[in-house]
Structures are given as structure tokens and as C-alpha cells.
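Listing S7. Sequence submitted for prediction.
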Amino acid sequence: MVRLAHRRILGSAAAYTIALLLSLILPLAALLLFLVVPLFNIFPFSLDRQFRAPSAIGRSR
């Protein structure tokens, strides 16, 4: 579980680094990458379900 969290955090940092370097060559592609990366951080993934409150889990049934 910790490995998944590290992969998500470092993946975002790597994507921003790639976008920064890409901005020197293809600014439009870098802008697109800068706009897409936050979407992956906003939407929950499987690890985020582990941290939901127990009361929220009981109400969803």
C-alpha cells in the first residue's frame, strides 16, 4: 500500500518534470500535460478507498 502511494506521488512529480523539459521543445504538449496531471490527483484510486471513514462506508450500502 505504501508502494502505491509513493508511486502516485513520484509519478506526478516525474510528469511535471517531463512537462517542464517538454516545454522547451513542444510548449503545447507541455501545457496539455500540466493540465492533465492534476486530474489524476483529484480522482480517487484504489488506495484512497482504504482511508474513507467507517461511517461513510456503512452509509453507502
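Caption to Listing S7: primary sequence and predicted C-alpha cells for the chain studied. The two ends are 25 Å apart (CA to CA). The first helix runs from residue 2 to 22.
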